[in-house]
Amino acid sequence: MESERKNRWAGFVVGPAIVFIALGAIWKNENRFDYHQAAKKTQPVESVQALVPGQRFSYTGGMDPQLTLPGQYVDAFTGYLEVQRSAEIDAWEKDTDSDDRVTWSRRWMSRLESNSRNSGITQQLSSRTFSPARYQVGGLTVDGSQIELVDDAVRIPTADLQITEAALQRRDDYLYLSKGESDNLGDERVRYTGIPVPSTATYFGKAESGRGVADTSQARTGMLNTLIQDTGVLHHIVAGERETALATMAAHISRLKWIVRAAASGAVIIGFNLLFSAMLGFLYSVPLIGGLARSGSFLLSLVFALPLILVTMLGGYLYANPLVLAAIAVLIVAGLFALNKRKQKTQKAVYRDLETQYGPKLQTLSMKELEFIELAKLVFSDDHLDPKEEDFLRRWSRQQGWNDARFREMLGRAKALGAGGPPSLNATEEQLENLIRLALADGDLSRSELRSIQHAAKRLGFDQGEVARLTQQVQQMATRNVAPSI
Fold first, then answer.
1. Does residue 335 share a domain with residue 244?
2. Which pTM does this prediction carry?
């Protein structure tokens, strides 16, 4: 019970923390430094002598395929811009679920987990990155500090390496360190990957004392930027001529963005799942949410997480691209202006039709009174008004602020005008068109007006498709009859 309470409190704390960090990562990712765009803006130079201090430039030249990096455990690496060594140890991993059930799994892990089954085991091999102090691209010397590389790394075969650590043995493209245990527990291994030296490369960065150095004017710091690998530094060596290198950079940043989006979105869902799992008992009784909670915390997590992820992603993108935001705002304003002009045109056209239809009545009755009369004539076109229809008309009148006396007066007028037996199908359709014209007199159909029309139409056997057709027909006929302004 005590453990269950601890797990619940962990869900309350850890879940929201993961959500907060992951959403922050999504926002930062959409606002990350675009080194591809920064590289495009650099000035290409053909001679190192032409460099101006502080200038952001690009330079293309050949590279030495025999570039050598010092090694550890092995003698050296030849022909690589950078080498990454990854170390792993064969050990036990302990996992405890919310019900205190312990699961043990043995696997290769980058760091030794401290638990009872790993007691007495030590990790001797470590991961590391190897890079030179400086690079040479043609006649340009490039500072190796803070260098950024975006080309794909390849696996380095251990057969190409000269081992300097006697205890290490080659096995399946790994270097193994055996601990001598019968079950091989605690054995370690390392593998190497490297970015090959290209025959031709393009450098993007800043000039200083005739060298290429890191442009840190947009440098990013902080936990979230580190998490999404956003350094904000332009100091890149990329294989190929300038245009080829730019294409590689564009593909790399696009791929990196999508990786972060996917990983951070998954983290948001996991965070909500931890939180809702801890709150499940409480959420069962909450209206609306309770039904989702009974379906499981994961479904509830998706319902909350996905809209939040999309809003954060879109907000971050628009914040990072103000021109796009401005274009959307202009389109919205232009759309509203066009709709308003259409509304005014429709209003003018419909009013002319109403003048023709009603003549002097239009001067003595308001639009809403005429609309009520047409609506009432439709709902008791069979000379009978059942309680449901009367209740519908009464609710409509209350929406206009009419009292009961006004309602009865207008209902009497409608009955008097609608006397004479059931109308023909054509007459009924004409009445429905009149009702639509009255509703369109202010330029558009409100939701309540549309519901009223659909209610009357349904009673007369018209479906929603026919109502839409009649509405479009009324608008087209009215605007076609409007005299052009001079």
1. no
2. 0.69
